[in-house]
Design brief:
Elements (H helix, E strand, L loop, with lengths): L1 H22 L7 H19 L3 H15 L7 E5 L5 H7 L7 E6 L2 H10 L7 E5 L12 E6 L9 H11 E12 L16 H7 L3 E8 L4 E8 L6
Parallel strand pairs: 1-2, 1-4, 2-3, 4-5
Antiparallel strand pairs: 5-7, 6-7
The structure holds S-adenosylmethionine.
The site of S-adenosylmethionine has 19 residues, from helix 2.
């Protein structure tokens, strides 16, 4: 009987750890735990993620730059940039002549980004900083992006509000929304269809468009309201 209870306890403990560490990636345990986990996994992140450069160009960089085609040299901020996925996809496009600022809390993820983006260092700036408190003036960027990260930040609505604050009026917002069965295990993290759109409804944005992207993420596009229209 004791062995059965001990076995059951072990299974429950492993399930709890799987949920908190693998699925939630420390999101319920605070920003320090999330950062520690990403620091630990930074060296293998790209190998595990295994994104394809053509997919990144077709499904990310091209739609983003097409929406920015009326801006000559756009300034893009990528919040929670990780190993520099979005900056790399964008600066590799021949028609992109702007700059990208990538921001993340994990020093080791940023170190990987720095290595990958070394050939483009004159057009990419990387900063170690939390998403909830962006160190930029209002209306600074032509586009603000954040991929596969909002569910891990301490206060997702605050992080999105910060992104909108630093966007120029008419500027482009691109964020992801976690979907799929794992999203159901992330209660209170604004995952699953509709929750992030509710967050955006309280902010000065228009033209909110949700688009299927990957099995576990939708893309959400929006534009910041111009002055006087909010
Ligand atoms: C799943 S990775 C996504 C990275 C990148 N955007 C991509 O699509 O590959 C999540 C990233 O969010 C970062 N992150 C988590 N919480 C953060 C916070 N509060 N502020 C800034 N970055 C954060 C992590 O360090 C990690 O690099």
């Amino acid at each position: 009987m004791v062995w059965v209870l001990a076995g059951l306890g072990l299974v429950l403990l492993l399930a709890l750890l799987y949920w908190q560490i693998i699925i939630a990636e420390g999101a319920y345990l605070g920003a320090q735990v999330v950062t520690l986990l990403y620091d630990w996994g930074a060296a293998s992140y790209d190998r595990i993620k295994n994104v394809h450069p053509v997919d990144e160009a077709v499904y990310l960089a091209h739609p983003l730059l097409a929406r920015l085609s009326d801006v000559r040299s756009p300034w893009i901020l990528d919040v929670a940039t990780g190993t520099g996925r979005l900056p790399l996809a964008v600066v590799q496009q021949l028609d992109f002549s702007g700059r990208v600022v990538g921001l993340d809390l994990s020093a080791k993820m940023l170190r990987q980004a720095r290595l990958k983006l070394a050939p483009f260092r004159n057009r990419v700036t990387l900063i170690q900083q939390a998403a909830g408190n962006l160190p930029f003036r209002d209306d600074a960027f032509d586009a603000v992006t954040s991929l596969e990260a909002l569910e891990f930040v301490p206060d997702p609505p605050r992080a999105v509000a910060e992104m909108v604050r630093v966007l120029k009026p008419g500027g482009l917002l691109l964020i992801t929304n976690r979907i799929g069965w794992e999203a159901r295990l992330l209660q209170g993290r604004y995952c699953g269809r509709g929750h992030m759109e509710e967050v955006l409804a309280a902010l000065p944005v228009r033209e909110v468009q949700t688009e299927r992207w990957q099995v576990y993420y939708d893309l959400i596009w929006a534009r910041k309201e111009e002055r006087g229209k909010a």
